[in-house]
Amino acid sequence: MDINMGIPAFRIQLCSSRLPIAATILSLLLFPFAAMAEAAGTPALEQIPQLSATFYGYASIAIFVLAYALVPLENNIHLLKSKPVLFAAGIIWILVALAFNDVGASEQAHYAIRHAIIEYAELFLFLLVAMTYINALEDRNVFQALRAYLVSRGYSLKKVFWVTGALSFTISPIADNLTTALLMGAVVMAVGGKDIKFVSIACVNVVIAANAGGAFSPFGDITTLMVWQKGKVEFLQFLPLFVPSLVNWLVPAVLMHFALPDGIPQATKEKARMKLGAKVMMVLFLATIVTAVSFHSFLHLPPAAGMMFGLGYLGLYSFYLKRVEGRTVMADSIFGGRSEAHKNPLSVLQSYGQDIGEHLNDQPYPAFMLNTDHEVTHWNAALEELTGIKASDMIGTKNHWQAFYKDERPTLADVMLDDESGVGVRQHYGGLYRDNPIQGKAYDAANYFENIGQSGAYLMFSAAPVTNNNGETVGSVELFEDMTDERADVKEFDVMERVSRAEWDTLLFFYGVIMCVAGLSQFGYMAMISELMYSDLGPIWANALVGVLSAIVDNIPVMFAVLTMDPVMPVEQWQLVTLTAGVGGSMLAIGSAAGVALLGTARGVYTFASHLKWTPAIALGYAASIGVHLLINGSGL
Fold first, then answer.
1. Could you tell me which of 307, 337, 279, 317 has the C-alpha nearest to residue 494?
2. Any idea what the Cα angle at residue 300 is, between residues 296 and 303, rounded to 5°?
3. Does residue 577 sit in helix, strand or coil?
4. Which whole number is the average pLDDT over 518-527?
5. DSSP 316-382
6. Main-chain phi, psi angles of 476, to 5 degrees
7. Are 579 and 245 in contact (CB under 8 A)?
8. Rounded to the nearest 5 degrees, what angle is found at the Cα of 115, between the Cα atoms of 109 and 121?
9. Is 384 helix (H, G, I), strand (E, B) or coil?
10. From edge to edge, which strands make up the β-sheet containing 433-435?
11. What is the mean pLDDT of residues 567-595?
12. If pLDDT is split at 50, 70 and 90, which confidence band does 165 have?
């Protein structure tokens, strides 16, 4: 039997005693909420004597408050936030077991902790897959490419303010508010530079927009994910929160706009290009989200199962990347391996003009030269050593491709003769080439050649046209650099490595919080809190208070508490509490993961005080978003 079936009777029993009520109020002052879903298939709670006024209950509250008080001090005392809550969770469950053993219900603790672990497992698997995809996209330079694009546009400061805010609002529903805030915060700091006023205001804007954008999507925030997985709000029922969330961002953004400095900062020349597989991985991530939704909506299976299925998509695709390329970051690692002593050997050859061929044998790099008929005119000694093919067998022929490929195809030198527009090099070398910095048309490319040496070789090769004194093309030259040794130290893309780079401290922190509040819920405090809030204040005021508390404490334990109390509310009120828990944290810099992250990356510029200055404007947006929700979606009461 679901434990919630016993809650009404238990509420009456608890509320008949003033001591438990006093303990509840004290626990609210020390820590507003402490809860988690109670165990299914356990004895009805009304059959167990109340435990809220016992030593075990008071001790558990004190331990949790002390442990959670260390979480905001993580950066000051250098204690990872997961450690104190993990320790507290263990102590609390010892106290739970002892309490139930004293009243002759020892099995209650067993069933309760098992159910809590199952609850956490679903959340853990879902987040693990999402974090793995985000890490994979980061590895593919998706976020770096977006950042480079924005900082090189030459936008005015006010335009950057609105662009970064709009992108934060639109990206966070998919990539989560924390990742989005870090990305857009980096853009703000790169563009704003030493303009402290702009960076400070723009960071506030990014935090608000990221939190607001995450509120209308199950994937935008941990709290929205929890509400969706609990079935309180279905996937499509999050969409009506779009307009209230937009209002939540726009109201303070408009007010902050008038405080922005004028000016157009100088555009940077930062460049970043997405690596091979980036677009496919973005599609796979979206497909994984669709799979998770389908598992939940049509198959009535946990969304986490759909996400794990989606992790299989990424795993198979990573195997494909290895088979096709032999690595996912090969070209980049090879390009990065060129020594500073010989940064651009092609420039040395170019200095000889049309007499390049006469100097090829003097060069340490393997090289050959073609005439305009694609016939080999020069094949130096270094290339003989690399390929094992004598110059006498190549000069005067068009068989130079045989040294590198199994099937006939143009070499980079051939491409330079046939096409100066760059279409040919893109066609034959895809994402494995780059422009060579010498004057005129020239390219670098990189690839793995299984025909070279005993076990293949990773080569970087460069080609350029050869011109006479009149500027006419008389041939082309191509030289090679063996980068096999440099390449040996580069790790290939591995989906398991992406999994290992998940934010494990955060995942373990979630475990500690869930287990702590699951243990505290066994003492019965949630029934009293539910009675005080949702019966006395009413759902609208209670749900509005949830957002305020999430700015002070944290929206995760607050939402755990609401889901545990499981007040009888229509979907409109569940939408409201989802909205308030998601955006309420924007009122303080420490009220959301997005704000805390930017406090670290923009240290000394974006501060608690600089954010607090705009709290009245943010609170106005918070109130407006609640009003808009009640106006367009109704209260359901």
1. 317
2. 30
3. helix
4. 76
5. HHHHHHHHHHS-SSHHHHHHHT--GGGS-HHHHHHTTGGGHHHHGGG-SS-EEEEETTS-EEEE-HH
6. -150, 155
7. yes
8. 135
9. helix
10. 376-379, 367-371, 473-482, 457-467, 443-449, 433-435
11. 89
12. very high
Q: Buried (b) or exposed (e) across 174-198, using 16+ Cβ within 10 A?
A: bbbbbbbbbbbbbbbbbbbeebeeb
> What is the three-class DSSP state of 580?
helix
Alpha-carbon distance of 518 to 123, in angstroms, equals: 14
Rounded CA separation 69/81 (Å): 10
**Cβ neighbours for 562, distance < 8 A, ≥ 6 positions apart:** 33, 546, 577, 581
Distance, in Å, from the CA atom of 547 to the CA atom of 562, rounded to the nearest integer, reads 11
The residues facing 476 across adjacent strands are 370, 465
- Please give the angle made by the CA atoms of 386, 390 and 393, to the nearest 5 degrees: 135
Buried b (16+ CB within 10 A) or exposed e, 90-110: ebbbebbbebbeeeebeebbe
Name every residue whose Cβ is closer than 8 Å to that of residue 630 and which is 6 or more positions away in sequence.
540, 576
Cβ count near 316 (within 10 Å): 11
**Distance from CA of residue 365 to its chain's centroid?**
43
pLDDT, position 557:
76
pLDDT band at 621, cuts 50/70/90?
very high
Secondary structure (3-state) at 609: helix
User: pLDDT tens-digit profile of 395-415?
Assistant: 999 999 999 988 888 999 998
Residue 440 burial (CB < 10 Å; 0-12/13-18/19+)?
exposed
Cα radius of gyration rounded to whole Å, the chain: 31
- Reduced to 3 states, what is the DSSP secondary structure of residue 282? helix
**Residue 355, pLDDT score:** 76
Q: Name the β-bridge partners of 444.
A: 434, 462
Beta strands 443-449 and 367-371: pairing type? unpaired
* H helices present in 31-81, as ranges: 55-69, 74-77
> Which residues, at least 6 apart from 553, have a Cβ–Cβ distance to it below 8 Å?
31, 32, 33, 68
Tokens of 557: 């334990």
Q: Scanning the structure block, which residue is given the tokens 């755990």?
A: 560
Report the percentage of the chain scoring pLDDT > 70.
82
Query: What is the rounded distance in angstroms from the CA atom of residue 370 to the CA atom of residue 411?
Result: 11
Q: What is the pLDDT of residue 340?
A: 43
User: How much of the chain exceeds pLDDT 90, in percent?
Assistant: 28
Greater confidence, 596 or 269? 596
Residue 434 three-state SS: strand
| DSSP collapsed to 3 states, 441-505 | CCEEEEEEECCCCCCCEEEEEEEEEEECCCCCEEEEEEEEEECHHHHHCCCCCCHHHHHHCCCHH
The token pair at 551 is: 């700015």
Residue type at 469 in one-letter notation:
N
Residue indicated by tokens 């094949």: 379
Pull the structure tokens for residue 215.
């509120």
Contact present, 428 and 409 (Cβ < 8 Å): yes
Is pTM, for the whole model, over 0.85?
A: no
pLDDT for 464 equals 87
